[in-house]
Amino acid sequence: MKHILFAFMLVFFAASVSAEEPDAAPGAPPAAEEKVDLKAAENFKEKAEDLKEDLSDKLGVLEKRLNDKERHHFGIIYNNHNLIQTVKTVEGDVGNAVSACSRENPDMASKMEDRFDDWKTAVNAKLTEAEGLTQSMIFAQDYATKDEINDALAAADTLRAHSQTIYDKVPVTSEEACEFLYEKMVETKDNMLMLISTTLISVPQEMQKVEEPASEEFPEETAEETAPAEEDTDAAAEDAPAEEEVPSESDEEPAE
Fold first, then answer.
1. Can you tell me whether residue 67 is helix, strand or coil?
2. What stretches of the chain show up as alpha helix (H) in DSSP?
């Protein structure tokens, strides 16, 4: 959860959404504006509740028949998918900010676009790896059909997209703001790479490690049980003097 909240914070930073709302037109009645805002907020909330209910229904139908191990497996798929989509949102917001800065500050366009290309190359390489791991987890499971899982993930995508509509992301294009974005792209790239590596890639690998002890338990015990037996056999062989005490036939014949 901490990683997801961190990613959403980056969404807002990457877009440079700090432009102030334009002042109301002279003479516009404040009461009318408040009613419009309240109505929009009410519609937003109602739709959000409907989308949450749809997602909850899909997740409920899927998870109610899963055991603990399967539920944990699906939870990783679900969280990875949502985090991958969040990283893509960050990339889109950074791209929009870079485009706006390049358009309003032509002298900065070349260096802004070059740095964003480097940003995309590094992040997308890791993102492709993370998506491959998530798809592998979907194909490897047998507790749900691919369509059932994809339907739940699509419902999460719809709710996430709706939640973004409440924000008016307007990149700030002053020279100072664009220079700040240029300098911060290195940091956000490193943060994205860390986020992807530690959460999207490491978590499935850690789950595999959790599952390994159960499959290795019998071989480990067998190895421990057989090792002492071999040592005892060797020790018994060393202590047995039988062959040394039995005289050979040549030793029994009297010398002439």
1. coil
2. 2-14, 30-63, 68-104, 109-140, 146-164, 175-195, 202-239, 242-245, 249-252
Residue pair 87/3 in contact by the 8 Å Cβ criterion: no
Residue located via tokens 């056999």? 233
Asked whether the beta carbons of 41 and 53 are under 8 A apart, the reply is no
Nearest to 78 by CA among 51, 59, 99: 59
Residue 25 pLDDT class (50, 70, 90 cuts) = very low
Alpha carbon 126 to its chain centroid, in Å, reads 10
Q: What angle do CA 39, 40, 42 make, to 5 degrees?
A: 65
**CA dist list (Å): 150 to 5, 13, 63, 77, 160:** 23, 30, 14, 10, 15
Residue 89 and residue 169 in contact, taking contact as beta carbons nearer than 8 Å = no
What is the four-CA torsion angle of 34, 39, 40, 42, rounded to 10 degrees? Answer: 120
Residue in the block written with tokens 């749809």: 54
pTM: 0.66
Lookup: tokens for 26: 């002279």
13 neighbors 188 (Cβ within 8 angstroms): yes
Closest by CA position to 78, among listed 38, 34, 22, 137: 137
The residue length of the chain stands at: 256
CA distance 120 to 108: 18
pLDDT tens digit sequence for 200-213? 777 666 665 555 54
Measured CA to CA, the distance from residue 13 to residue 181 in angstroms comes to 9
Q: What angle do CA 173, 174, 177 make, to 5 degrees?
A: 85
